[in-house]
Amino acid sequence: MVFLVAGDDRTVYGGDSNYLWRVKTLKQWVLEQDSYDLSPHQISRHVPPATLAEMLAATDLHLYLTVPFVLSWSMMNAMSCGAVVLGSRTGPVEEMIVDGENGLLADFFSDGGNGGGGDAGAR
After folding, report:
1. Range with the poorest average pLDDT among 51-60, 100-109, 113-122
2. Spelled out in words, what is the top-level CATH class assigned to the domain 53-123?
3. Which secondary structure element, helix H or strand E, spans residue 43, and what is its range?
C-alpha cells in the first residue's frame, strides 16, 4: 500500500495555525504526536495540474475526512478524475456524495469503535 500526499503544507482556510503555535506546520505537529512509518508515503509539495490529475486517476481511494465546512477543490478534483472518495458524513460532503453510489461516507463524529457509525456506509 502506498499513500500519495500532494500539496503545500500550509493553512489556507480555518484557524489551525492558532492551535499549532509551537510548530511551524500541521505536518510537523502530526509527526510529533507519535512515531510513524513513513516508508509507504510518497509526499510531494505542489504539483502541476496535469500531474495531480494523473495521480488522482491512478489512486484507489481519496480520503476527504473534513470538519463541516465548504467543499474543497480536492474532493471535486478527485471525483472528476474517477477516484473513489471516502468522505465525512457532513452536510457539504453529502451534497456531492451519495453513499454507495458515487462515493463512500463515514460518520465524522465516530472514532469507529463500539459506538457504531464509524464504518464507511454505516448510518
Report:
1. 113-122
2. alpha beta
3. strand 41-44
